[in-house]
């Protein structure tokens, strides 16, 4: 049993999201990223662009809290659609997330980050006994990573998606992701 990747209105939403991401010149973004992950019998692939904030908070001992905007496009591939073995569900999605990062003033070396953002899925997620009631989801994450001297940024991210009890049921889903980004 296969479930369609996108419906008409989500295609329009994703197209608008892509156009908004591309409406700024490419050089306006500070970095690009790719993420791979899994959770609840669902694989995730996500690409994104990041725009660093100039603001620094709580500067102390060579560290500060900074952050960036993370705009993403994602694909989820569930392998147990409607809790049926070997039935698949493919979803697309867009997201925008303000990310707060505790980092060194040099912007190199280890860091920790936390975030919560807004995401729109192309359809209702229904995989492995977890059925969302809305396409809109909050995506919050905690991650640790390392920025190398050449600017390459590698991290491990734990992410939770939920609609924040806007509508029931609200089972949520958790993913563990590996992320790599490179500065422009």
Q: Which stretches of 5+ consecutive residues score pLDDT under 50?
A: 1-8
Question: Helix fraction?
Answer: under 10%
Compute the number of strand runs: 12
Radius of gyration, in Å, reads 17 Å
Function: Has lipid A 3-O-deacylase activity. Hydrolyzes the ester bond at the 3 position of lipid A, a bioactive component of lipopolysaccharide (LPS), thereby releasing the primary fatty acyl moiety.
InterPro entries: Lipid-A_deacylase-rel (IPR018550)
Family: Belongs to the PagL family.
Enzyme class: hydrolase
Detailed description of the structure:
The chain is mostly beta strands and 184 residues long. It has a domain at 64-135. The chain is 9% helix and 59% strand. An 8-stranded antiparallel beta barrel has the order 2-3-5-6-7-10-11-12. The longest helix is centred in the N-terminal third of the chain and has 16 residues, at 8-23. The chain is elongated and about 50 Å long. Mean pLDDT is 89; it is low at 1-8.
